[in-house]
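Regression test case RT-17, inverse folding.

Input:
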């Protein structure tokens, strides 16, 4: 077969990303390149720090007769990737190796200070530094940083002008994170990248559903973006009957419980300042106000699901974000409403299994895609392959 397009080093490195330890013979079969070309490419990639030369097959106990084959493997620790979920109220960071395995983490709570740009940028900076320390790796090893934000983002990493919220969410991270290649991306799009492996060939929406609804949409295997990065923005819900705003399940639950305060008896689980946090527990016990609120949340979610499925002909809506761990009762009610309505297609409604990590894991996946797309454009730190491997913090 003809060899794939690209330089021989790029082709061999792409093979290494998808393989464990391999011999030149295996790389020849996997790439279609000649033996001399594969060996030259492997030598070049070892010198650049992308590959490790391993013990030969005889030393590894895999070879008995003749000349032992040289063996190679991707140097997983040649550089690291940083994924950041820079939400309004919380920052989460993960540091991963070149296989996407998370080696270090950090998080910071912004509370009500997340709209202050200086506070927000400082929290991101400190959380990245803490996560690198947790991974026991220096900033010079960072190849790509991907920052997920709750705002639309175009291909240049810029957000459209609005009433000021998007500007605060995307105030410019370049000077702050002055190492590695920086990518700024919409958080719901990153959630969709994280959910794509579990959704197979389905066209789906990853619906961030805590404070505000936001959808990352994959149709026929392609992540939809739009000219200004606005695909999946849910401000249109202001105009949808029975929904009325883009407020998510968590925010709406608090509002509905507060509205019903005069009907909540003192002994109810819903009583008190944090009553909405015990909403699903109260509903399971048959509390009439809680049951009503859960039903209204289910109706709201079902309407959002119908809107997405009708416009985009998608197969499934994945409710994502921290709310996904507790959203089962709302999904049950939403499915009942969908069954009662005469709409087609009816989307499958499921909860994400990634919980609050969905955006930060999507950021790591996006960073890994960035590396694999054009790895040789990235400069590895000097003698990275000779340094100590990353340690799990």
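Golden output:
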């Amino acid at each position: 077969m003809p060899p794939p397009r690209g330089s021989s080093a790029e082709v061999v490195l792409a093979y290494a990303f998808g393989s464990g330890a391999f011999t030149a013979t295996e790389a020849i079969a996997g790439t279609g390149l000649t033996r001399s070309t594969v060996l030259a490419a492997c030598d070049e990639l070892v010198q650049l720090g992308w590959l490790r030369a391993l013990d030969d097959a005889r030393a590894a106990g895999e070879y008995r007769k003749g000349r032992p084959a040289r063996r190679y493997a991707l140097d997983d620790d040649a550089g690291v990737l940083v994924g950041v979920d820079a939400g309004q109220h919380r920052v989460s960071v993960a540091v991963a190796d070149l296989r996407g395995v998370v080696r270090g983490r950090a998080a910071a709570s912004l509370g009500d200070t997340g709209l202050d740009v200086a506070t927000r940028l400082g929290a991101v900076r400190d959380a990245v530094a803490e996560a690198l320390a947790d991974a026991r790796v220096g900033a010079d090893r960072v190849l790509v940083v991907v920052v997920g934000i709750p705002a639309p983002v175009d291909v240049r990493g810029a957000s459209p002008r609005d009433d000021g919220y998007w500007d605060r969410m995307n105030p410019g991270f370049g000077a702050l994170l002055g190492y590695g290649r920086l990518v700024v991306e919409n958080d719901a799009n990153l959630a969709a990248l994280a959910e794509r492996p579990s959704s197979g060939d389905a066209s789906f929406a990853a619906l961030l559903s805590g404070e505000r609804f936001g959808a990352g949409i994959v149709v026929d295997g392609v992540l939809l973006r739009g000219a200004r990065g606005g695909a999946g923005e849910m401000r249109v819900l202001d105009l949808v009957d029975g929904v009325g705003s883009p407020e998510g399940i968590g925010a709406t639950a608090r509002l509905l419980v507060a509205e019903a305060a005069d009907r909540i008896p003192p002994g109810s689980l819903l009583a008190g300042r944090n009553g909405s946090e015990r909403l699903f527990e109260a509903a399971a016990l048959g509390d009439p106000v809680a049951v009503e609120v859960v039903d209204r949340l289910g109706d709201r979610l079902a309407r959002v699901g119908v809107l997405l499925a009708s416009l985009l002909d998608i197969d499934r809506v994945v409710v994502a974000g921290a709310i996904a761990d507790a959203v089962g009762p709302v999904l049950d009610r939403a499915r009942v409403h969908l069954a009662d309505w005469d709409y087609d297609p009816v989307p499958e409604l499921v909860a994400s299994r990634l919980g609050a990590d969905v955006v930060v894991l999507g950021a790591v996946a996006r960073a890994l895609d960035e590396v694999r797309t054009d790895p040789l454009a990235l400069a590895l730190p000097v003698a990275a392959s000779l340094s100590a491997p990353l340690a799990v913090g």
